[in-house]
Amino acid sequence: MNIIVCIKQVPAKDAALATAGNWIRESDIGFEMNEPDTYALEEALRLKEKHGGEVIVLSLGPERVKQTIKEALAKGADRAIHIADDNFAQLDPLGTARLLAAAIAKEKCDLVLTGLQSDDHGFGQTGVLLAALLNLPNATIIMQIEVQDGKMKLKRELEAGWFQWIECPLPAVLSIQSGINKVRYATLKGIMAAKKKEIATATRESLGVAIEPTQKIEKIYVPTKTKKTEFLTGTPKEMAAKLVEKLKFEARVI
Amino acid sequence: MKILVITEQRQGKWNNTSFETLVAAQQIAAAASGTVSAAVIGKGVAALADELAGKNVAEVLLVEHELLENYTPDGYCVALKQVIDAAKPELVLFPHTYQVRDFAPKLAASLGKGMVGDCTGFRNEGGTLVFVRLMFQGKTAADVTFTGTGPWFASFQSGAFRADLLAAHPSGKAPVNAAEVELKAEEIRTKPLELFKGAKSAVDLTQAPLIVSIGRGIKAPENIAQAEALAKALGAELAASRPICDEGWLPMERQIGSSGQTVAPKLYLALGISGAIQHVVGMKGSRTIVAVNKDQNAPIFEIADYGIVGDIFELMPALTEELQKAKG
Which chain A residues contact residue B291 at CB under 8 A? Predict the structure, then answer.
C-alpha cells in the first residue's frame, strides 16, 4: 500500500507572532510540523507496517520546510517530495491543493492522507480539495482505518460525541483527526537513516500549475476584543485571593 | 446579490447552526441589497422546508432524492452542483459543521470556485464583501475577499451569529419549490454505515454549574492531580481541551469544544488553555470565564472576564488554598 502524506510546516505553538501585512514576520520564530499532520504521518507509518508499501511525504513551502521533511523521514517515511515555493503563504486553498495534486498525480499511490487542518492558515480544505482535483473519494475527520479486500472501513467523527462508520474504496483521500493514534518520536537510528533518503524537489513551473487565486487575504491582525477582561496582578497568593473575592462578591458564581 | 443558504439536517433534525447562517445571510442581504434563498437536502424533509418557509427568505428549495437520505460527500456535491447551476446564486453560505467541511470545498472546486471557511463575521466595504476568519489558532484574524466572479462560497462558524435574531417572513410564507436533481448510485463512492454515540458519558458536563478546564499548559499527566484538587475545592467538574484527551490524560468524555461537549456553566476556569477556536466554540457561552495563562497574548483572554497572566503551577495550589479558606 503506497501512501502519500501531506505535511505542513507551521510556526511553533509557543512562537510570539508579529503580523506583517497579510502574513506574519517569519524572522525570530521557530517552526515545527503542523500537529494534525503528525497524526496523519503516524497513521501512514502504521498502515505501512501492517500492509507493506511505501510512505511518501509531500510538503509545500520555502527552503525551511526541509527540516520538517527530514523529521518525517527520520520517523520512518521512505522518501519525500518538496514543492519549493516562497510564496506559499499567499496561496488560497485551491491553489495549494492544485500544486499538491499535480505532484500526487505523478506518483502511483493507494491512499493520500492529510491532517485535518493547519495551525497557521487553518483552512481545513486541503484533503477535500485533493479528492476533488484527483477525482478520488474522500472522507474527513477519520478516527480509525481498517483496510480489507481493497477497501476501507472508516470511523468518522461527527459533532457532540457521535461517530459514523463508512465504507470507502481505494484509492482515496482521507483527512485524519488528531488523537487517532499516539505519535512516535524519531529514533537516533531513524535520524541517521533519514540522511540517505531522497528528497525530490518540484516547483510551480515543473508541475505546470498556473495559479489563479479565488480569494485573497487582505490583511491579518490581532482580533478586536469583544469582552473587557479584568486582569488581576500580584503574587500568586494575592491573585488567588483577589479572584476568590471577585467570584464571590462581583460575579457571584461561587 | 442573490444568496443561497445550504441548511443541514440529519435524520429529520436540524443542525441549529443552519439558522445562525440564515441570520448571517439576512444581514449580508441587508448590507448588500440582496435576497436570501434556503435549500433543504435529504429525503422526506418537506416538513423542514415548510418550517424554513416561515422565515424571512425569498424561496425555499427542496432538494429531495432517494440517494440523499443519508449524507455522502459525493451525493451532496453532485446534487448541489445542479441546484447551484440552476438557481445561479452569487453567494452560497453554509454553517461550518463537520459535514460541511467534508464536502463544501469540493462542491466549490467542482465549479472552479474557492471557499472561505469558518468565518466569524463580514463587512461591506464600499460594495466589497469582506469576510473575517481567524488564523493561527485564533491568535490573529484575517480579512478575506473573493476574487473573480461568483458564485462565491463561505461558511460561518457556530456561534458567530445569533439564531434568535432570525427574522420571520413578513407576509406569512415563502414559496417552497422542488429542485429536481439527477443522481445515480454509482456516482456515490463511499457508503455510510451505522451512526453511533461514543463512550457513554458518565459525566454530563453540560449540567455542571462550575467547570475547571485544563489545556496544554498542564504539561504532564502527573500534574492533573493539582487541577483535580482545585476542582474539588471549588466543587467543580474537571474538563479539558482536545490535546489533553488526545494524549489520553483525561477521557474523551471530558473534552470541551467542537468535537466534544458544548457547555455554558456559571463559571469556567480555563487553566493553561490557549483558546483555539475549536475549544472556544464549546465554552464561550459560559457566564463568567476566568483564564490563567503564561502567555498574555493567548486568545483565551479575548473572552475572559477575569485574567491572570501567570504560571498555573503557582496559581493552582494558591487558589485551592484560598477556596478552602473561603469555605472555612
Answer: 229
**Residue with cell string 488560497:** A92
**B172 and B285 together in one domain:** no
pLDDT in tens, B244-292: 998 889 988 899 998 788 888 999 999 999 999 889 989 988 989 999 9
Q: Do B140 and A220 touch (CB under 8 A)?
A: yes
User: Global pTM?
Assistant: 0.86
CA distance B323 to chain A (A): 7
* CA–CA distance, A69 with A44 (Å, rounded to integer): 15
**In A, which residues are within 8 Å of B190 by CB distance?**
137-139, 166-169
Instruction: Determine the structural domain holding residue B232 and report its residue range.
Output: 205-327
B54 domain residue, yes or no: yes
| CB-nearest partner of B145 from A132, A218, A247 | A218
Q: How close are the terminal C-alpha atoms of chain B, in Å?
A: 63
Q: Is residue B27 classed exposed, middle or buried when 0-12, 13-18 and 19+ CB atoms within 10 A define those classes?
A: middle
Query: Nearest-CA residue of chain B relative to A140?
Result: B102
Could you identify the residue written with the cell 464561550?
A: B284
* Closest residue in chain B to residue A152, using alpha carbons only: B190
**Is the same domain home to A22 and A128?**
yes
Count of structural domains within chain A: 2
pLDDT by residue (tens digit) across A101-134?
999 999 999 999 999 999 999 999 999 999 999 9
Question: Is B23 a member of any domain?
Answer: yes
Considering the domain boundaries, does residue A85 fall inside one?
A: yes
